[in-house]
Amino acid sequence: MESHPNASSKTDRKTVERNRRNHMKNLYSELNSLIPNHSSKETMSLPDQLNEAANYIKKLQRKLERMKEKKENLMGINKLSRSISSGMMVGVKSPHIEIHDMGSALHVVLTSGLDQQFMFYEVVRLLHEEGAQIVNANFSIIDDMIFHTVHSEIGESMHGFGAARISRRLKKFVSEFVNAS
Hints:
InterPro entries: bHLH_dom, HLH_DNA-bd_sf, MASH1/Ascl1a-like. The protein is of the alpha+beta class. It has four helices and four strands.
């Protein structure tokens, strides 16, 4: 009688193992069906098939990352376009300036047409005249508009009144240009 439970146990293990192998075979087959354009999949060894699937997944991950970066770049452009159309400039080519006083720093955004690039140089000149030190300046061109961004630091003695004076001078310069046009 003792041999009978052992035989049954052995048969159960064989059945479980056969079912496990069949299940794994089905899973490998399903995985292979998801990998495109590989007619030689059936002739590939199992490790080669798994390697092929891993490479395909890595390729998809890289593609996803590139698409996320592209989306973020496009979203940045869309945000800029929305801020322009929501009040800053709606199809207007005349220059516009925004100045943000952030304590010891001034953030200046100058928007102008392609034919008004000299305005950027004037803004930089005015900032230097007032003793502000330019930390960073960059620009973007969208259609026929240029968006200049200037980050500058102002000295400790210039906080408050100095920043207000710089802001007035920059706004006056832009408004005089607009009125002269």
